[in-house]
Amino acid sequence: MSILPSPTKSNSEYRPRENDWRLFSRLIPYGRRHGKLLALSMFLLVPIAVASAIKPLLVGQAISLIRQEPNTYQFLQNMPLWQGLNILIGMLLIATSVRLILTGVQGYLVQKLGQKITAAIREDLFHHVTSLSVRFFDSTPVGKLITRLTSDVESLGDVFSTGAVGIISDLLSMIVIVGLMFSIQSQLASLLVLILIPVTWLIIYFQQQYRDANYKTREELSGLNSQLQENIIGINVVQLFRREKFNAELFRVTNQNYVKQVDNSIWYDSAVSATLEWVGLVAIAGVLWLGSGLLLERQISFGILSAFILYAQQFFEPLRNFAEKFTVIQSGFTAIERVVNILEEPIEIKDYPQPESTRVDFELGYINEIVARLESQEFTPIPTLGEIKFENVYFAYKNDDYVIKNLNFTIHPGEKIALVGPTGAGKSSIIRLLCRLYEPTQGRILIDGVDIRKIPQIELRRYMSVILQEAFLFAGDVKSNITLGDNYSFAEIQQAAEKTNVATFINQLPHGYDTQLRERATNLSSGQKQLLAFARAAIRNPQILVLDEATASLDVGTEALVQEALNKLLIKRTSIIIAHRLSTIRNVDQIFVLKRGELIEQGSHEELLQQQGFYATLHNLQMLKA
Ligand code: ADP
Question: For residue 134, how far is its CA from the centre of ligand 1 (angstroms)?
Answer without folding.
Answer: 13
